[in-house]
Amino acid sequence: MPRIVNNLHKKEIRRTLRKKQTKEEILLWSKLRNNQIGYKWRRQVSIGNYIADFYCREKLLVIELDGSQHLDNKEYDKERAELFKVLGIKTLRFWNNEVNKNITLVIHKILIELKRASPQPSPGKERAKFPDIVQ
């Protein structure tokens, strides 16, 4: 069975993305890293064919930071969100300007979501939409 999280084929892409982070990713990472908010986070994690900005495995939570490039990638974002949902992974999205203007509020929203129960993977019929990724 292929590896779903941190597929080895995406290792170089993940490494490159970690080296070329946006200032907003750097700022948020400075608040998430080293269990500062009580949970372990990873950055630039591949999940299936997609790469999430930040991922908390314990709570099955992805955080995506969106800049203007996401206005043109709505279909890509929709497909990625659908796969994550099938896998039981919740996605929180923040605009870059939210991180820049009020990082405290962003962290507060993340903490609220972390306190909720972890989602569960979707039933088999929804999982069948991704046969090459999900068994």
TrEMBL record:
Superkingdom, taxonomy of origin: Bacteria
Annotated organism of origin: Candidatus Nomurabacteria bacterium RIFCSPLOWO2_01_FULL_42_17
Alphabetical list of Pfam families matching this protein: DUF559 (PF04480)
Domain spans labelled DUF559: 11-114
Protein name: DUF559 domain-containing protein
